[in-house]
Design brief:
The protein is of the alpha/beta class and 389 residues long. The chain has helices at residues 27-38, 55-58, 64-72, 95-114, 144-154, 171-176, 225-243, 269-286, 305-316, 329-336, 366-376; strands spanning 5-7, 120-123, 160-164, 183-190, 214-219, 247-251, 291-294. The two termini are 31 Å apart. It holds the Pfam family Hist_deacetyl.
C-alpha cells in the first residue's frame, strides 16, 4: 500500500521575502509548485494550508525577548539587535507573521504524522535551519525545523533523527538539541573552513547525555555526486539503523548543486534526486516509513531549485519523475519571462550519480568519512574502520 502523504502549501509562503534582491527569493517556491503541477506530480493532491505558529509553539525553541524583537523590528528605526537588520537578515514588514507561517507549516506537517493522518509530510517552505534561540542567522528568522522537532518530543516521541543535506551546516538545529539523546542530528555540508557558518566539525558530536548524537560530515569543496553519496552511505545508514528513529526529519537544501552561487560543491540534479531516493529508503528501513520533509537553501532560482524540489516532491509522493522528462513548454515560457539565464530543457543534467561504496579503494572524500566515523561510531557500538558497520 502506498504511504499516505500530506503536502503543506499556501501562496502566502511567498510573503517570506527578506528584500527585493535577497538571495533567498520565494520565486523558487512558486516555480517549484508550478513545475510539479505541470508535470502532473500534484494531480489529485489536496494541499494543506497552515496557520501561523503560536507563541507557545515558537517558545519551545526561541526565547521570549527574541519574539518581541521580531515583532517590533519593522517599527524600530534604530534596530533591535538579535541578528536582525543585517545584510543576511534584513528587516521586512510582517516579518513575524511570515516567519511564523512557515513554522506553522512545518508544525502542520509534523502533526499530520503524529496524529496518524499521514506517513510522510512535506513543507518545502520550511528548512530555516540556522535560526538560534535568541537570534536570526543565515536568512532564517524562526527555526521551523527545531520547532517541529520540539513539538514532536512534547507529544512523546523518544527518538527523532534529523538529517540535513543542505550545503551549509545545520547549526541551529544542532544547537537546539546538542545535549538531548532523543534527537540525532546529522549534517552533510561543505567544510567549515571554506563556507559559512564555519561550524560542523566532526568533533562537534554533542555533550552530556547527547554525546554521539550530533554527527557532522564536512565535505571538501568540489565534491560531486559520487563523493557526496559515498560519504553519505558510509556514515548515515549505519547510525540510523542503530538509532532506529520513530520519525525521520530531513532538511533538503538544493544549494549543493554546481550552479549554486553561494557555495562550492559540485552536485547535479541527478545526484540530488539520488539523495532524495536514499532518504526515502532510509525512512522506510529505519523509521517505520515516517518521514517529515522540509526545504532549505538553494539560490539557483530558475535552473536548479524548481527541478530539484519537483524531484523531491515526486519522491515523497512515490511519483518518481523520469529524469529525461522534458520541461513543460508553458513553465519554460513563464520562467523565461523572469530571467535572462538559459533554462534547462529536461529534468536531468545528464549526469550519472553512481558511486563506489566506502571501503578498500581510496577516494578524496575519505578523510571526512574517517574523521566522522571515528568521532561518533564508537559511541554507538559501531566499528569506525569496518566498512560493514
Amino acid at each position: 500500500m502506498s504511504p499516505r502523504t500530506s503536502v503543506v502549501w499556501t501562496p502566502e509562503f511567498l510573503s517570506y521575502q527578506l528584500s527585493d534582491d535577497h538571495p533567498l527569493n520565494p520565486v523558487r517556491l512558486d516555480l517549484t509548485m508550478r513545475l510539479a503541477a505541470g508535470l502532473g506530480v500534484l494531480d489529485g493532491v489536496e494541499v494543506l494550508a497552515p496557520e501561523q505558529a503560536s507563541d507557545e509553539d515558537l517558545l519551545r525553541v526561541h526565547v521570549p525577548s527574541y519574539l518581541t524583537a521580531v515583532r517590533s523590528a519593522p517599527h524600530e528605526p534604530f534596530g533591535v539587535g538579535h541578528g536582525l537588520g543585517t545584510d543576511d537578515n534584513p528587516i521586512f514588514l510582517d516579518m513575524h507573521e511570515a516567519s511564523a507561517l512557515i513554522a506553522g507549516g512545518s508544525l502542520l506537517a509534523a502533526r499530520e504524522i503524529a496524529e496518524d493522518r499521514a506517513d510522510r509530510a512535506v513543507n518545502l517552505a520550511g528548512g530555516l535551519h540556522h535560526a538560534m534561540a535568541d537570534r536570526a542567522a543565515g536568512f532564517c528568522v524562526y527555526n521551523d525545523c527545531s520547532v517541529a522537532i520540539a513539538w514532536l518530543l512534547e507529544q512523546g516521541y523518544e527518538r527523532i533523527a534529523y538529517v540535513d543535506v543542505d550545503v551549509h551546516h545545520g547549526d541551529g538545529v544542532q544547537a537546539a538539541f546538542y545535549d538531548d539523546p532523543r534527537v540525532m542530528t546529522v549534517s552533510m555540508h561543505q567544510h567549515p573552513l571554506t563556507l559559512w557558518p564555519g561550524t560542523g566539525w566532526p568533533g562537534e558530536y554533542g555533550k552530556g547525555d547527547g554525546a554521539g548524537y550530533a554527527v557532522n560530515v564536512p565535505l571538501p569543496p568540489g565534491t560531486g555526486d559520487a563523493g557526496w553519496l559515498r560519504a553519505f552511505h558510509a556514515v548515515v545508514p549505519s547510525l540510523l539503523e542503530s538509532f532506529r528513529p520513530q520519525v525521520l526529519v530531513t532538511e533538503c537544501g538544493a544549494d549543493t548543486h554546481s550552479d549554486d552561487p553561494l557555495a562550492n560543491l559540485e552536485l547535479s540534479i541527478d545526484g540530488q534526486r539520488a539523495i532524495y531516493r536514499s532518504l526515502r529508503d532510509l525512512a522506510e528501513r529505519t523509521a517505520g516509513g515516517k518521514w517529515l520533509v522540509l526545504g532549505g537553501g538553494g539560490y539557483s532560482l530558475f535552473r536548479v531549485v524548481p527541478r530539484s524540489w519537483t524531484h523531491l516532491l515526486a519522491t515523497v509522493l512515490d511519483r518518481d519523475v523520469d529524469p529525461a522528462r522534458p520541461l513543460p513548454a508553458d513553465w519554460v515560457a513563464h520562467t523565461a519571462g523572469l530571467t535572462r539565464e538559459p533554462l534547462p530543457t529536461s529534468m536531468t543534467d545528464g549526469k550519472d550519480p553512481s558511486f563506489v561504496p566506502w571501503g578498500d579503494v581510496a577516494e578524496r572524500v575519505d578523510t571526512a568519512i574517517l574523521e566522522t566515523r571515528r568521532a561518533v561510531f564508537p559511541l554507538h557500538g559501531l566499528d569506525p574502520d569496518d566498512p560493514r558497520d
